[in-house]
Every structure is written in C-alpha cells, then in structure tokens.
TrEMBL record:
One of its GO terms (biological process) is negative regulation of DNA recombination. It comes from Bacillus canaveralius. The keyword S-adenosyl-L-methionine does not apply. Residues 516-607 form a coiled coil. This is Endonuclease MutS2.
Length: 785
C-alpha cells in the first residue's frame, strides 16, 4: 500500500491506538511494523489468529503476558563469551518464566475442550527451560542483587565480610565513645570513604589518631580519617571484597555461558512471545472499539453493517451500512458540503486497510470485506470556491498517478472529485474520470457537490447515487448514509429556517429551472418514503422481538406446568399407594387378632368368615381413581364389540374381547389366557380400524425403524435443532425409553442448544451426559416420560 494512502486514511493513528494494548516492547515493535497485506491466504490466517486471541480474552478476561523482554541482544553477546550483568540475566529468567506460564495457560484452555489450533501450535514451539530459570533465580534476586545462595564460596566470603565489618565498626565506635572524642570529632559517627571505614576528625586534632586522610569537608574544618589502629582491619576487609567481586564475576560468567548454550531456544521463545503479545494486543484493541471479525473475499465485495470510524468516539460516531461490488461497483455520494461525506469515504477505506492488516473492524457481525491489491485515495481538506490553480493541479497530479496504476482489483476513493476549477468543467472531468476507472473494473467511492453527477448515477449501469442525510430542523447533518438517494440542495430550507423572507426565497426558486425543481422534489419524496419505511421496519423488528420473547416465555411456562403436573401426579399416586398399604396392614392386623381370639377363647369363628372379613376390609380400602382419560373412555364406550382392545381392571392387564357369554360377562383373551370378565371391570381402549384397500404407508410404532442415536456433528446450529425435533417425534412413535444425541465437544454452542431444547420438550423426563463408554460430554442421553 502507498505510504500516502496510509497517511491520508489515518492508518498510523490506528496503529498508535493498537500500541497501547501491547504488553511488551516485542508486541509494540510488531505493531509499529504492521502493514496491510494483499495476499488473501495471509489475510485469512491473520484474522484466524486474531479471532483465537479474542476467544481466549472472552473466556478468561486476561492472559499472563507480563515480564517479557527482548533478550536477543543478551543471547547474542552470551554466545560469544560475553558476561551478562545481573539485570540482563534477570530479564532472561523472567522471559523464560513468562513463556512457561503462557504455555501452561494455553494447554489448560485446550484441556477444557476449547479448540485453539493456532495458539497451541505457537506454544508448542516453546522449550521449557526451567533449570536455567531456576539457576538464575537462585543466584540473583529480582532487583539484580547477587544472592549468598549463588555459591558456597560467596556465602563464606559474605560471612567473613560481615564479621570483619562488625569488628571494624566495634573498634571505631569505642574510639568515638572515649572521653576526649567529643572535643576532637566533628560528629560522633562512623562513615565510609573510598570503601573504607573512617571517622570525622576536627582539623586541629588530625595527628591524634594517625592513619590515612581520605577526604575533607568543603570548609576544610573536618577531615575523614582512617585511624592507624584499623588500617590493617580495613585492608583485610578490602581483600575479602575483592575476592567477593571475583566470585560474583565467576557466577555471572557461568550463568552467561548457560544462556549462550540455550541461545536457539531462547530466541525462539522471544519470537513466539512477540507473536502472542501482538495477537492479544489486536484482540484487546478489538474489544476496545467493539469490533468483529469480517468475512474476507477476493472478489471485490464490501458489505459493512453499522460500520463506524474507529478514530471517532463510539458515543459520537454514526454507524452506517455500506455495500459495494455486488449490484454496483461505483458509489457517487452527492450533496452540498455539509459534512459526513468524507467520514463515510474514510470509514470504508480505513476498515478495508484494517481488515487487510488482520485487525477486526468496528462493524457488526456478518460484515464482509475484500482483499484488494491496492487502495488509492485522493482525499484533501474541503476547499472554498476560490481554490487556487496549484491546489487543483496537485489533485490532478495525484489522479493521473492513480489512473496509471488502477486495475480490476483496486479500491479507489475520490473526495470532492473535480473540485477546484470551473463547475461545468469540473463536473465533466469528474464524469470522465469515473468512466475511466469504471472501465478498468475497479471499485470506486466518490464524493462530489456537483449536481450534474446525480444524473450520472442513473445513466450508468453499475453506478449508484448516495447522500448524507441533512436535518433541516436542526440545520445540521445526521451523518447517516443513504444509498440509492442522491443528495439535494438544502439552501432554500436552511435560508427559510434562518429567517430569510418568503418573498426572496420565492424569487430565488423562480430562477431555478423546472427540471431542477422536479428532481429536488423527487429526492425529497424519496427521503420521506425511506424514513417511513425504516420506521415501519424498526417497528416490525420490535414486534418480532417481543413475539419471540413471548413464545420463549410460554415455552418455559408450559415446561414448568408439565413438570409440576407430573410431580403432583407422582405424589398423589404415592400417597394413594401408602393409604392402601396402610389399610392392608391394618386388615392383616385385625385378622391376626381375630384368629388369636378364636384360639384363646374358643370362639366359634369359622375360617371362611375370616376370609370374608378380609375381603370386606380389602373392599373398604381406598381404591386408585381411574384417570380422566380412562373414565371418559368408560363413560363414552359401553357398547363393546368382539375384537375391541380393553383393559381388565381386576388384573390391570390389556386384552381383546372374543365374544359375549352373557348380558354382563365377556370372554377376554389376555396373552395366551382366555377368561371370563364382568363388563363393569372392563375399560375400552381401542378398536382396530378396518383394512383399507389402497396401499398403506409405513406405520410408525414400536416396529418403526429409527436409530437409538442421532449424530449432529458437522451440522449447522439451526439445521441440527430441526433434526432433533423430527428425531424425537420418530423415537417417541417407536416407543424408545431413551435416546442418545451426539453433538460433539467443540465450542459447546451446539451442546448447549440441544440440551436447552430437550429440557423444554414435554416428552423428555430428564437428560444427562454420556458415561465414559457412551461418549462423555460429547453425547447427551435423553430419557422419555
């Protein structure tokens, strides 16, 4: 892309905003180097990377990318034998730690069945250098201080240092506490000069302590003297310090050699972390501007839904729908210089540049953009009617350059095409330039205030007029793009609102041709009809949304009703069974007591009388009420016929009537048994339909062939739910007690949708995930009522 186009469309400002979201200098460097690509495959891959990072941020909120440094200069120096300083080694350890944290972070998400192929591939290239990290952390703390634990020799030397320093301080403190010290010393303190312990002695007593003078005060009245009595101790202390420094250097050289040995792995870690930091910087920026992933094509199609200019505040910017490359390849935005046309032009161009750089765009889901070989723009500040020739010439030089390069896979943006010269000549030039670019097959968006170009949009195939809406009431543009409606002059309306007399306006209108008036009136009518259509569409959408919410609410209420109904019925049946059981136990207790009485008191109670008493007690026990359906069937059906299917209440079994044996009795066949049954103990179930002579379609029932499982993997969401609905109907007709629905693990969206549908289905009793041998969380088992 031309540097001038990137500057004019303010792509650099987008990069500046992107920089704020990088976690390290590595990510910031990649953001600074960001450029749009014209390679379709590369652009698609870049968007997949950004989308994965967006998915991770949506799931986890943040990523562990702190503590990353560009340690490549350190590894380069270490591999040739250079000694790294403690801070450089700490940066190396911190970067290793960050890579280890990031690798574990992505692996943990992957284990949660979230597919992240690109991020997993990147972290797979990271070599875990835990030993090197640990060696550095044992030797050096986060502030860059070499620790005693770095080596036993250093620990010993540090111990000797502390011991010697204590002895020196003890000798000096005894000196400053002596009787004469107060008059000979400027201050009763022990201090350090040139790494040696000294005391501040007044000038006149310089010879009292002997030793070495290391420094003096600015006035010369105080000398910092190392007394002769501790010179030897200071010498020993200095000797230990030299050995300490030598040991520290040995430790740093050893650690530097380890870094040099791992140069290849460390450089790869830096490269991977740079890519990851950049990916998540793009994801954070996407979240900031409320962007979405566009669908990319290489066929020159633009379809932006509620697109916003990313550099204008979300609270102030007006979102617009912009389409190009399907029904028309050129948009001519006409109308006076009231603002909004240039912003629309830049929005389309900047969104295209962002998309080709792998950035998500500030538009709604479903937006589509093309990958162009080149984007050309001639956009300048709005000029007055007194534009100089030089300004017009500079625009023409740019346009000539564009015409020399443009081809079918180019996007061209012209702002105020033909401006800066005589209106008639400028309009003619604009039409000619647009015709030439159209012939080349390029996609064009042009703005102009020339009224002659309104007719251009109607007379050319593949060209459409557009305008930016202007509110005459507020005397300001709404910045809303109106595709298909050319801009109209608002001069008369604005003048009237500002107080110009009707007489003057009427005279002005008389000077405008009838054709122009007719066109302006037509445009005004189109705008009014469009506004009415948009209001009606919005109202229809609102009604549809309310209806959908009502439907979902009713579904939930129905599901709750059926759940409650089944629960109450189960409770009632349990309660009835408990009452019956209690009654039977009481009956048995009474029979036992009667038998006991007969034995103890020789009462003349016959066994058959006891049996009769039990029968009467059984009859007295509460009986289960027949359900409403059965009662209705019994009430409605008392004219039994041979072949009818009935339920025999005394046996609680279904059978078929064979023949009537008396006025109140029927012979019934239950399975292989035939028996007599009283008509009052029979409940009508159904009657076989007469056999039709025409071919009968396959009858669904228990013999209906339908699988015990439904595989939805690879299905689209809506198609999958449609298949589930039909499958459940078939499974219920087949009489299955339970079925398995295979939805896979994936992102979980299909699984959630299937389970939500099953929970709301009136025939489903309960659902659960499959066991380990049944498919685990990739399968849902539904049990029917």
């Amino acid at each position: 892309m031309q540097e001038r186009v990137l500057k004019v469309l303010e792509f650099d400002k987008v990069k500046e905003q992107l920089l704020e979201h990088a976690s390290s200098s590595l990510g910031r460097d990649k953001a600074k180097q960001l450029l749009p690509s014209s390679d379709f495959a590369e652009v698609v891959k870049l968007h997949e990377e950004t989308d994965e990072a967006v998915k991770v941020l949506r799931l986890k909120g943040n990523v562990p990318l702190g503590g990353i440094f560009d340690i490549r200069p350190h590894t380069k120096r270490a591999v040739i034998g250079g000694m790294l300083n403690p801070h450089e080694l700490v940066e190396a350890a911190s970067t290793i730690h960050a890579s280890r944290q990031m690798k574990r972070f992505i692996e943990d998400i992957h284990e949660e069945t979230v597919e992240l192929p690109i991020l997993t591939d990147y972290t797979g290239k990271i070599t875990v250098l835990a030993d090197l990290e640990q060696n550095i952390k044992i030797a050096i703390d986060e502030s860059g201080e070499v620790l005693d634990s770095a080596s036993e020799a250093l620990r010993s030397l540090r111990h000797q240092l502390r011991t010697k320093e204590a002895r020196v301080r003890e000798r000096l403190e005894s000196m400053i506490r002596s009787t004469n010290a107060q008059k000979m010393l400027s201050d009763a303190i022990v201090t350090i000069r040139n790494d040696r312990f000294v005391i501040p002695v007044k000038q006149e007593y310089r010879g009292h302590y002997g030793g070495i003078i290391h420094d003096q005060s600015s006035s010369g009245q105080t000398l910092f003297i190392e007394p002769q009595a501790i010179v030897q101790l200071n010498n020993e202390l200095q000797s230990i310090r030299v050995k300490e420094q030598q040991e520290i250097e040995r430790i740093l050289i050893d650690l530097s050699l380890q870094v040099g040995e791992s140069k290849e792995e460390l450089d790869r870690i830096v490269d991977v972390l740079a890519e990851l930091d950049f990916m998540f910087a793009k994801a954070r920026y996407s979240s900031r501007i409320k962007a979405s992933k566009p669908k990319m094509n290489n066929e020159g199609r633009l379809f932006l839904i509620k697109a916003r200019h990313p550099l204008i505040s979300i609270d102030e910017v007006v979102a617009n729908d912009i389409s190009l490359g399907t029904d028309f390849s050129t948009i001519v935005i006409t109308g006076p210089n009231t603002g909004g046309k240039t912003v629309t032009l830049k929005t389309a161009g900047l969104c295209t540049l962002m998309a080709q750089a792998g950035l998500q765009i500030p538009a709604l889901d479903g937006s589509e953009l093309a990958v162009f070989d080149a984007i050309y723009a001639d956009i300048g500040d709005e000029q007055s009617i007194e534009q100089s020739l030089s300004t017009f010439s500079s625009h023409m030089v740019n346009i000539v350059d564009i015409l020399s390069k443009v081809d079918f896979n180019s996007l061209v943006l012209f702002d105020e095409l033909g401006a800066g010269t005589d209106p008639q000549e400028g309009a003619a030039l604009a039409i000619s330039i647009l015709d030439e670019v159209y012939k080349r097959g390029a996609k064009v968006i042009a703005t102009t205030h020339y009224p002659e170009l309104k007719a251009y949009g109607y007379n050319r195939e593949g060209v459409v007029n557009a305008s930016v809406e202007f509110d005459v009431e507020t005397l300001s543009p709404t910045y809303k793009l109106l595709i298909g409606i050319p801009g109209r002059s608002n001069a008369f309306e604005i003048s009237k609102r500002l107080g110009l007399s009707d007489n003057v306006i009427a005279i002005a209108r008389s000077h405008v041709s009838a054709d122009s008036n007719q066109v302006e009136n037509m445009i005004a009518s189109l705008e009014a009809n469009r506004r009415q259509a948009e209001n009606e569409l919005e109202e229809a959408h609102q009604l549809l949304t309310e209806a959908e919410m009502l439907r979902k609410d009713l579904q939930k209420q129905m599901a709750t009703y059926y759940d409650k109904k089944d629960s109450l019925q189960e409770k009632a049946e349990k309660k009835a069974a408990d009452i019956i059981e209690t009654a039977k136990q009481e009956a048995e207790s009474i029979i036992r007591e009667l038998r006991q009485l007969r034995i103890e008191k020789n009462a003349e109670v016959k066994e058959h009388e006891l049996i009769d008493a039990r029968r009467r007690l059984d009859a007295a026990a509460p009986q289960k009420k027949m359900n409403k359906t059965t009662a209705k069937q019994k009430e409605q059906k008392d004219d039994f016929k041979p072949g009818d299917e009935v339920k025999v209440l005394t046996f609680d079994q279904k059978g078929h009537l064979i023949e009537r044996v008396s006025e109140t009795e029927w012979q019934v066949q239950i399975g292989i048994l035939k028996m007599k049954a009283d008509e009052k103990d029979l409940v009508y179930v159904g009657r076989e339909k007469p056999v039709e002579t025409k071919p009968i379609a396959t009858i669904k029932g228990r013999d209906y062939h339908v699988g015990l499982e439904l595989d939805l993997r690879g299905e689209r969401y809506e198609d999958a739910l449609s298949k589930v609905e039909k499958y459940l109907d078939d499974a219920l007709l087949a009489g299955y007690p339970r079925v398995s629905i295979i939805h896979g693990k994936g992102t979980g969206a299909l699984r959630q949708g299937v389970q939500e549908y099953l929970r709301n289905h009136r025939a489903v009793k309960k659902i659960r995930f499959g066991e380990a041998g049944e498919g685990g969380s990739g399968v849902t088992i539904a049990e029917f009522k």
